[in-house]
Batch of 2 targets.
Target 1
Amino acid sequence: MLAISTMWNALKQPDGAALFDALKELGFEAIALSRHLTLEQVEQLKPMLQDIGQIPPCAIQNFCPILPRTSQSEAETDKILLSSLDNDERQEAIRRTIQTMELAVEMEITTVLLRLGEVDTYDRSYLMTELYEYGEREFEAFSRKVTEATEWRKRKEAKHRDAVMRSLDELNERALKMELHIAIENRPHYYQIPNFDEVGLFFGEFYGSPMRYWHDVGHAALQEKLGLCWSHQWLEAYNEHLIGVTLHDMQELEPHHPPGAGDLEWDELFTQLPSDVLKVVEIQHGETETVMQARELCESLMKPQDEE
C-alpha cells in the first residue's frame, strides 16, 4: 500500500474537509495522519476517513492531534518526551500517546508511530553540517567531529534510554490490549532516540510485543551524509521487525522533498524495501503535479518485475 501523509497540506489548509479533498486528488491508496493536525482538523477528517467509500487512514503519529498550546509550525519540536528524566513530563507524554492510540482504535488505524524523545545533550550537529556543506565529508576532521558529538551523547544516554524503556513497557502493554502495533522510528539526529544500536536493545527487551520498526529513508540518508550510520544498515539489521517505511527525498541536507526531486537513488532504495510493508510519502515541499509524479515513480518501482 502507498499512502500520503497529511504533512503535505496540514499547515496550508486549516479546513479538514478541504485538506482531505486535496489529498484524495493526488491518487494515493491511503492517508497517514501526521502530528501537524489540529483537533479541529481531526474532527473534520473523521467522517470522511471512516466512510467505506473513501480512501482509508493507515497510520498515525504521536502526538496527533497536536498538543494543547502548540502551534502547527511547532509540531516537529517535541514539547514533552517519552525519554524525559522528569517523571511528571514522561507520564504526560505517555498519557498523550495513549490518547493518540485511542484515536487510532476509533478510526480503525492499526499502527501508531512513536517519537521516543532524545538525550539531553547540547546539539553539536552543526559540527558535522558545516563541514559537510564545505565539502569536507571525506576528511579526518569530519570523522573527529562525529566522534566528538556522539561521545557527548554517550555520557548521558543511559538514563534517558532507561526512561524510554519504562515508557515502552507501559505503551506495549496498552497496545496489546488495544490490538495495535506501536512502531519505533529511526530519527535524523544523533542525539535523538533511538540510534542504531538502541533499536536492537529495545527489540531485545520487548521481543514478541506489539512493537515494530518503522524506517524513514530520509532520516537514514541524513545520518549517512553526516557520518553517523550507513543508511542500508537499518533495513538489513531490523528487517524482521519492519512494518512501514516513510518515503521522502533529500536535497543536500534538506528533507521532505517528493521522491525523485532530490539526491536519493530510488531504484536502488526500492530494491531494499519489502513489497508487503506500508509505504508513506511524507513531504512538505512540492506542488500537486510534482507530488503526483512522485506517486507514479513509487508505484512504478513497487511493481513486480514480471508486471513491467
Target 2
Amino acid sequence: MSGRGIERRHSAAAGRIEELLAPVFFVMAVMAALAGGAIVVLIGASVTMRYFAFAPFRFTEELVGLLMTAAFFLALPLVTLRVEHVRVLVLVSALPDRAARSVSILAALFGAAFCLWFLALCLPWLEFAFDRNIKTEVGRLLMYPWMALLPLSMALSVVAFLVRGASGDGGRKTGQP
C-alpha cells in the first residue's frame, strides 16, 4: 500500500475516534466551566460572609484550589483535541505543508509522551491518597476523587494527541495559519 493510502487510513481512523470522543471531551469541558463558575460563586459568598457576617468560610482556599485544578484538567483533553491551546507558529507557518505535517506529528508524539510521563507520576500519588483516605486540612475533603481527574485527563489527552497526530493536520484548519 502506498504512503498516501496509509495516511488516508490513519486520518479516517483518527476522524472516527475523534467523533466518538468529542462528546465526552465536551461534557468534561462543560464541567470545567461549571467548576470555574463555582469558584466565582464560592469566592463571592466567602467575601460576603467575611464583610457582612464577620465569619468567612474556612474552606474557601482549599476548595477553590481543587476546583481550579479540576477545571484545568477537565478542559485539557478537548483543548488538546481541537488544538486550541497556546502555540508558537512562527516557524511552523513558514514551513511547506509536508514539513509542517512532520513537525505536527513530532509535536503530537512529544505531547503524548509528556502526558504518559505525567500519568505515570500521578498514579502513585492517587494510590497513596486512596489507600490512606487523605483529606484536606481545613475542609476535611477527600483528596482522591479530585486527584483521580489527573490520570483520567492525561490518558484522554494522550488519545487526543495521537488522534491529532494521526489526522496529520496539526490544527491547520481553514481560517487558521
